[in-house]
Amino acid sequence: MPHILHLYKDIFPPVYGGMEVVLGKLAVEQARHGWKVSVAVSGPVDRVWGAEHGVDVISVGEWGRLLSNPISPGFFRLLEKVDYDLLHLHLPCPTAVLATLRKGARDVPWFASYQSDIVRQRMTGALYRPWQRKFLKRCSSIFVSSPPLLSSSEVLASVRERCRIVPLGISPQELSSQEQAAGGNLRADYGGKPIVLFVGRFRWYKGLHVLLEAMDQVDAVLLVVGAGTMRQEQRIRKSINSMKNPERVVLLGPAAHLGPVLAASDLICLPSTHRAEAFGYVLLESFAAGVPAVTTELGTGTSYVNQDGETGLVVPPGDSGSLAEAISRICQNKALRDRFSEAAKTRVRKDFSLDGMVEAILTAYNEAGLKAEG
To answer: How confident is the model at residue 120 (pLDDT cuts 50, 70, 90)?
Structure first.
C-alpha cells in the first residue's frame, strides 16, 4: 500500500493544539482508508495511541526550539533512511521544509498544509522566505484552511494556482450526560454566573492579556484552559493580580478533553491580536457543543469560522472595551446566545466535517497518481 510520511513539530496526542489535533485526526482517517501512514515530529509521541490506530509515530528529537521552530537534524536523517511514496508537510515548520529541500525524495509528490504565515520573525522570516517559496513551488498541492488566509497571504500569492481551500474538519458529537453533569457542577461552583472560556497556549499572539483587561468590565467568570512557559505563566499571573477583580479569572491548566468546560460555558473567546492565529480549531470544538464565540478580525480564518452576527461576534483586535461589550452582550441576552448556539452547531456540521477534509486531501493525492489499495 502507498506510504504517506507527514512531517511537523508535534502531534496530538500527547501535545494538545489545533494543528496537532488535526494532524492526529488526519493520520488516523488516512490509515482507516487503507494507506500506510507515518507521522514524524520533533516533539514527544504516544506510541500506544499510534499502534491502536495503525499510525507509525516517530519522534526524531530536537536540540531545542528557536522562535517556536524546532532545531532538529533528525528530520534530515529520517528523510535519508525512510522510504515513502508521498510527503506531506504541515506548516509553518521551517526545519522540516529545509530538511525536505535537502534530503526529500524528488521522485515522489510533495504536499503542504499551510496553516499560518510566519508573522513575528521578520528578519529570520525574510531569510527563510526564498527556501519556503522554493518548497511550495515544488508541491503538487497546498491545502489552505480558509479563503481569507489564501487571499491575504503574501507568501501564497506566488503559488496560488497550487492552492486548494480545505477547511479543517471535526466529527461533531453531542456532549455526553456525564460531561453535561460535570458542566452543571462547574457552573454551580461559580454561583451560576455567566462563564467565558479561553482555550490556548499563552503565546504572544493569543491576546489573553487583552481578555484579562476586558474581564474587569464584565460581571462573569473567565475559565482559562491552557499553559505556557514559566515566563509566560508568570506574566499572566502578574496581569491577573493587577486586575480590579482578579477573582473573576480561574486558571485551570491544560486539558486534553474540553467536554465539561464547554458544557459549563456561555461563550468562548479568542482575543488573538495577530495573524499567527490563522483558524482557531477550538472554535470547531466549541461550535460542535453549541458554544458561540467572540473573536477578533485578523483577516485570517477566525472570522471565516465565526461569522459576525451569526455564530457569535467579531471585534477589533487589541480593543479590550469592544471585547468586554461583545462578551457582555452575549452573556446578558439568552435569546441571542441561543440563536448563536444553534447557528454554530449547524455551521460546524455543514461546513467543517472531518470526512470532507479527509476526502479533499485524498482526492489531491489521487490526482497526483497515488491511491490506497481497496
So the answer is: low
